[in-house]
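Annex B. Sample input.
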Amino acid sequence: MEDELRQMGSEPADPESEESTEAGEALEADELTPEARDSRADEATEGPAHEPIADAEPAADAELTAAPWRRRARLTGIVLGTTLVLWLLFTWITWPDVAALRSANPTTTAFIEMYRGAQRDAGRSDAVAWQPVPYDHISPNLKRAVVASEDTEFFFHEGFSTHEMKEALKKAIREGEAPRGASTITQQVAKNLWLTPRRSLTRKLREAMLTRQLEKHLSKERILDLHLNIAEFGPGIYGAEAAARHYFGIPASGLSPRQGAMLAAGLPRPRRWNPASESEYYRASVDRILDVESRLEFLDRYVGAAQPGLIGVRPPEVPAPTPQAHPTSP
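Annex B, continued. Sample output.
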């Protein structure tokens, strides 16, 4: 029986049956449209479609790798957002009343307090020479010199000057140094009253905002008045009145054109450049200021004509302030 079954299993297929099957398939193919035949041929060539299982693992790995990065990005965004909110809140709470300066004089400035703090840290007296006076008690010679030296567009801009930026760049090229801040007089008032010399994005932003508010709430005359009364003219010497009395022994109302130029020339670096300085560059700056202001005809209209002053030349002996070095950490 087993031998018979084996013989039956090993018997060749019926040729007639195979021919019948092939004929049926051919007939079915003839009945299909050309498009269907092409589609069936493609399926036969390509075989059954299967999703590549191996590709799922790299995708999962990429997802796991990206997850920590996204968490870090979200955390960084939260920290930055919180910091910005806290800074805005602090700025709003501590923001000065700019409009009050229309009639009220400042009782101190940020730069005066920094100087006093450095003096105390060094174990020295924190006294400063500072005597604010009314605007009309300051010689027009000093006003003319300061505008000619620091901000020739002061009466025409709204707080910022592209001309001053260009001039600062030219000066930096001449001196071979990094360009100064190119600050207008209004920007200097904002910085001296409320800010620090430290350079940072937030400080520049505050300076820009305060500058706009000064220009909005105060007249040009008042801004120049504040500048002349709070600017540093030497170590511990603030304002035109204290400077005129210290260097020349006269009130600010009696400054001559050259004396005004000598005080104005020292404003960029008051602890190195002042009427007691022997720097050739400083002396050349004094002559340059006198030349510039002589060509600015609008100064007669905005601050007044030049006046002789009490004396026309520098006194033979000018007391030189001793620069105080900031203490260093041991």
